[in-house]
Amino acid sequence: MTKYDLHSHSTYSDGLLTPDAVVRRAALRGVDVFALTDHDDTGGLVEAQAAAQDTGITFVPGAELSVSWESHTVHVIALRIDAANATLDAGLASIRSGRDARARRIAAGLAEAGIPDAYEGARKYVTSDRLISRTHFARYLVQAGHAKDTKDVFKRFLTPGKPGYVKHVWATLTEAVGWIHAAGGYAVIAHPGRYKVSPTGMRRLLGEFRDAGGDGIEVLSPSHTPAQYAEYATLARVYGLAASCGSDYHGPGEGWMDLGDLPEMPAGVTPIWSRW
Ligand code: AMP
Ligand code: MN
Ligand code: MN
Ligand code: MN
C-alpha cells in the first residue's frame, strides 16, 4: 500500500531538520509520497525536491498558509503548488511580512509578565531569517527555564488570554484558496480538530471554505483522536471535500507523531491524491 504523508516542516519555518534531512528521514521511514509544507514559505522546496530525486520518494511541493477566519487562526495546506508562481509568492510574502512586528509584540507581553528579552531569545532559535514563529519563542522559553516543555509554554504563555498571545490578522480564507489555485495547487483545511469552534462554527467554516473553492480537509492528523478521524471523514463527505493526511512533523523529539506514522484513511472518503 502506498504511504502518504502530506504535512511536514523544515528549517525554512519552525521545523528542526533541513529539507534534505526531512525528505531522507521520510524515505527511510517508508513514506512513498511526501509533502513539505512549511508555514507561509516555499523556500525549502528546491532542496527537498533534489533529495526526493535522490531517494526515489515522490515529492509534493506544498506550504501551510496562516489564515484569519472570524476570530480564529486557521491553517490551510497547499499541495502540488508551482512555487515559482508570482501570485502565490506575493501572497506568502504578505503573510510573512507581519511576523516580525508580531514577534516584538509577543515579547512585549512576555516582558510585562516578567520575562525580559524574549525577542532576542527567540531569534536565537530562528533558522530562516524570513520567518519567526511562536515555536521559536516556545523553544527559547523552555531553554530559559520558564516551562518544562513547548506544550507547557503554549498553555501558559502563547495561547489566547495568556501574556505572550497577541491578536494578528493573517490572510483571508478566500485569498489563501485563490493564491493556491493560481499556483495550480489544492487547498486543504489543516487539522480542523484543533480549532476552538462550535459544531455550527465548524460547519460554517467548511461551508465557506468549499464555497471559496477549497478542495479538502485533513482527516488524519496527530491533532485528532480516532473519533475525530471518523467525524472529519463524515464532514468531508457531507461537504464534498477530499480527505488528506499528514504527520505535521517538526523534528526529532517534537510533536506527537513521526513521519509516515499515520493510520489508514477511513473508508468512504475521496483521498485528495485521487483528484490529482
Ligand atoms: P505561529 O504560526 O507563529 O502562530 O506558530 C504556530 C505554530 O506553533 C504551530 O505550527 C505549531 O508548530 C506550534 N504550536 C501551536 N500550538 C502548540 C501547542 N499547543 N504545543 C506545541 N506547539 C504548538
Ligand atoms: Mn509549526
Ligand atoms: Mn498548523
Ligand atoms: Mn503544520
How are the strands of the biggest sheet laid out side by side? 1-2-3-4-5-6-7
Helix content: 25-40%
What is the residue-mean pLDDT, rounded to a whole number? Answer: 98
**Which value, in Å, is the CA radius of gyration?**
18 Å
The H-and-E topology, N to C, reads as: EHEHEEHHHHHHEHEHE
Quantity of strands, as a count: 7
Shape, per Cα inertia axes: globular
What's the SSE blueprint?
Blueprint (H helix, E strand, L loop, with lengths): L3 E2 L13 H10 L4 E4 L8 H11 L2 E12 L2 E8 L6 H12 L1 H14 L5 H6 L10 H10 L6 H9 L14 H10 L3 E4 L9 H13 L4 E5 L5 H13 L3 E4 L31
What does this molecule look like?
Helix content is 39%, strand content 14%. By secondary structure, it is an alpha/beta fold. The longest helix has 14 residues, at 99-112. The chain starts with a strand and ends in a 31-residue tail after the last strand. The site of one manganese (II) ion has 4 residues, from loops. One manganese (II) ion (MN) binds at residues 9, 14, 39, 135, 250.
